[in-house]
Prior knowledge:
By secondary structure, the chain is of the alpha/beta class. It has three domains: 8-79; 88-252; 266-465, Rossmann fold (3-Layer(aba) Sandwich). The chain is built from 19 helices and 15 strands. It has helices at 31-43, 45-52, 67-71, 93-112, 152-169, 174-180, 186-192, 201-218, 226-231, 236-252, 266-269, 274-291, 305-311, 325-337, 366-369, 381-385, 392-400, 416-422, 434-444; strands spanning 18-21, 24-29, 59-61, 75-79, 115-117, 125-128, 131-134, 140-142, 295-299, 317-322, 342-346, 374-377, 405-410, 445-453, 458-465. Strand 9 (295-299), helix 13 (305-311) and strand 10 (317-322) form a beta-alpha-beta unit. The two termini are 39 Å apart.
Amino acid sequence: MSTTQALPGSFRDPSGQVFEVDNHIFRTVTEYGTSEFDFVWSTGLLQKLTLNGWILPFEKVDQEVLGLTGKTASYVLEAPKLPFVSFPYEWPFSALKAAALLHLEIHSTALEHGVTLSDASAYNVQFHGAEPIFIDHLSFRKYKPGEFWTGHRQFCEQFLNPLLLRAFLGISHNAWYRGGQEGIGSEDLCRLLKWRHFFNSNVLSQVLLQSYFQRSARKNVVKLNKTHLAESNFPLPSFQKLLKKLHGWISSLQPLDGEITVWQDYAEFHNYSSEEKEIKKQFIVDFVQHNKPKLVWDIGCNTGAWGAEALGNGAEYVVGFDSDQGALEKTFSRARDEKLLLQPLLMDAANPSPNQGWMGCERAGLHARASADAVLALALIHHLVIGRNIPFSQVLDWILGLAPTGIIEFVPKSDSNAQVLLHLREDIFPDYTEEYFLSYMAQKAEIIRTQVVPSSRRILVWYARS
Length: 466
C-alpha cells in the first residue's frame, strides 16, 4: 500500500497534515498532536463551533483510507472539500475584515472552554461564498492560566495591519501581502502612519507597542523565550478583554478611499438600454441552464450581477474576479446580503496569482487550485488588448484555456468604454475587430450561439472548446 503525499501547504504543523484523495480532504492527527486534540474534543468546543458554522465540519474515519500514512496517525479526520481555495492577498477589504472578526470570535469562544489557539494565521480561514470558515482543526490547544496570547503578533501582521493600511491610508493590502506572504509588519506600518494616528489608544497598544517589541528583541534589549512566557501572568479576563476590544475596533474599520472607483458603478451606468440588458441576461441564462456548471469563474465580475444570475439558473458556485476594489466591495455585500455562493476575489487578469511560498508550491497559483466548468468573460477582453497591450490571440487563448465552455463578450472600438481606453493614445490594434474575433474563435472552439447587442454592436459568443 503506497504512502499518500500531503498537500504542499500543510508541511509546517507537527500535529498533522492535510491530504486530498479522490476529491476528498483528510487531515491526520499525529502522536505529537493527539493529547491536545483529545483534550479539545472533550471540552465540546469543536462541536459547538461546527454547529455555529464557524469551523469546517469533520468526522473521524478509518485510517486505512490514507494507506501507510494513515497507519502512522492516531486519527484521520475527513472534511468537505471547499469549491475554491483563496488566500488573504486575494481578499477584498470586507472579506479580510470578516475573517479577522471570525478568528476573534472563535478565540473568545475557545477561552470559555479552557482552550486557546496556537497561532493566528489568516491562512487558517477560507470562504464559502462570502462567509468565512475556519479550517485548521489542530490550531486549538489547552489554555494555560496566565499565558500571553502567543499569536498576537501574527494576528496584527496578517489581519489588523493590512486592514489599517486601507482604513487609515487608503492603500490596499493585496499587492504587499502577496509579495510578503506573512502580512504587513508593525514596524513598516508605523513608518507610514501619520502623527495623528498615534493619538488613537488602539494604535498605540496594537501597532506602536508591537513595533517596539520587535525592535527591542533584535537589539537583545528584550528577550522573550519559553521561560518568560511560562512565567508570565496575563489574567484570563484581560485576555478576553483584549480580544473583545480588538473585535470592536476592527468592526468599526472602513476603507478610507470611499470615493467611487472607476468601474464600481458600471452596472448602473453602462451603455446598455434596459431592453439590451435583458437580451444579454437571457443569453447568459440560456447558457447556464443548458450547461448547469458546478464551478463558474466570472472574470471581470464587476459588482457580481451576472454571477448572481448564474447562481439563480443552475450554477452551483461562482468565483468572481475583478481588479476594482469598489466593485468587489459591492460584490461582497451582494453575496452576504443575498446569501449567495458567490466568492469575490481581487485579481488582475493580466497578472493572476502565481505559485509561491516554500519551494514555489506552498500557495498554489490560480490555475493549480481548481478547474472551472464554465467561464464568463463579459466586457473584459478590450481591457486586456487595448488597456494592457496584450495580443488579441493570446487573450482569447488564455480565456479558452480556463474552462471547456463559456461566454466571451466582444466590445468594438466604437463602444464608449473602448473609447475611454483609446483616449489620448495611438490605436495600434489593427486586429481588434469583429471579423478577427469570430474567425479566431471558430478556429479554436465550436461556436454554439452568438448574439449581437443592437445599438452598441457588442457580440456575445457562447463557445465549447474543441
